[in-house]
Amino acid sequence: MFAFILQRLIQAVIVMITVAFIAFMLFQYVGDPVVFLLGQDATPEQIRELRADLGLDKSFIVQFGSFLGNAVQGEFGLSLRQGAKVSRLLAERFPATFELAFVAASIALLVGIPMGVYAALRRGSFLSQVFMTISLLGVSLPTFLIGIALILIFAVWLGWFPSFGRGDVVQIGWWSSGLMTAKGWHHIVLPAITLAIFQLTLIMRLVRAEMLEVLRTDYIKFARARGLSNRAIHFGHALKNTLVPVMTITGLQLGGLIAFAIITETVFQWPGMGLLFIQAVTFADIPVMAAYLCMIALIFVVINLVVDLLYFVVDPRLRIGGKGH
C-alpha cells in the first residue's frame, strides 16, 4: 500500500512540474509582460528597470526556479489586465465554477446511472431506445449549441429561467455560495444541465456496457442457478460490480467538468474561472493563463490520486497484485 501511494505521489509531482514548465513557457513566447505593463511608449531605461524588478534579466533556469517556488505557494504575480493578484482572482471565481461542476456532476450521476441500468436490463424496450437516442445526441451535439438551445427554449420562449449570471449569493468567509439562495438555484439550472449532458450520456453508455458485460459472467449465471431473484442479482451483484470501473470515470468527471466549464460559463456569462480564462486569452493576460493551467492540472492530479487510492481499496485484485511484486 505504501509503495503504491509513493509511486502515485512521484507521478503526480512529475506531472505538476511538467505542467508548470509549460505554463512558464507562456511567459517566454506569448508576448512580453513588460510591454503590457509599460505600454509601447516606455523608454529603454524603464524597460530595463522593470525587467530587473521582475527578474526577467536572469537566466532561464533561475527564472523557472523562481516561478516554480512561487507556484508552490500559490503566487503567480499580478494580472496584466486587472492589476490584481492572480491568486485572489482565482479564489474569487473558484466557488462559482466548483458549484456549477458539482451540480452538473450530481445531475449526471443521479440521472445517468439509472438510465444506464434500465437500458441494460430492458434492451428491447421503446424507452431504452429513446435513452440510447438521447445519449447519441448528447455525445454528438457541441456544448455551446446545447446551451444556446436551452436559453432559447426555457429563457426566451418560456421565460422559466434566467439566461445569464449567478443570481444572489451568500458570502461565507472567502467562499461565495449561490446554492443557499432561491435565485442562486434558479440561475444554476440551465448552465448545470448544459454542462451535465455530455457527462450524463457518457455515464449512461458506460453503465449500460459494463452492466451487460457483468450479466454475462459465470458468477451471475451461478447466482441465477441458486434461485436468487432478479432484483437481488441485478442490484445486489451486477450493479455493485458495474460501478467499480464507473468510479474511475465518475471521479475524473468532476475535474473534467471544472476544466471544460469554459464554454458553458461563456455562453451563460457565469462568473467562474472559465470565463476569467477566456477574458485572459482575449487580453493575453499571461499570469492568469499560467495560473489557470496549473490549477486545473492540480485538480486533475489530486482527483486522479484519490480515485487510484479508492480503486486500490475497492478492487482486491490490485492489492493481491501489489503483494506479488
Molecular structure report:
It is a single chain. By secondary structure, this protein is mostly helical. It has a domain at 89-285: MetI-like (MetI-like fold, Orthogonal Bundle). It contains 14 helices and two strands. The chain has helices at residues 2-29, 33-38, 44-54, 60-72, 86-121, 126-140, 143-157, 182-215, 218-225, 230-259, 262-268, 273-282, 286-314, 316-324; strands at 170-172, 175-177. It has a two-stranded antiparallel ribbon with strand order 1-2. Strand 1 (170-172) and strand 2 form a beta hairpin. Helix 8 packs across helix 10 and helix 10 runs antiparallel to helix 13. The longest helix has 36 residues, at 86-121. The mean pLDDT is 83.
What keyword list fits this structure?
two-stranded antiparallel ribbon, mainly alpha, MetI-like fold, 325 residues
- Beta-strand segment tally: 2
Oligomer: single chain
Sheet/helix structural class: mainly alpha
Q: Spell out the CATH superfamily of the domain at 89-285.
A: MetI-like
Total DSSP helices: 14
Query: How helix-rich are the residues, as a percent range?
Result: over 70%
The termini sit apart by 12 Å
What is the strand content? under 5%
User: Strand count, sense and closure of the main sheet?
Assistant: 2 strands, antiparallel
CATH architecture of the domain at 89-285: Orthogonal Bundle
Order of helices and strands: HHHHHHHEEHHHHHHH
Unreliable parts: none
CATH class of the domain at 89-285: Mainly Alpha
Strand order of the largest sheet: 1-2
Shape: globular
Mean pLDDT: 83
Radius of gyration: 24 Å
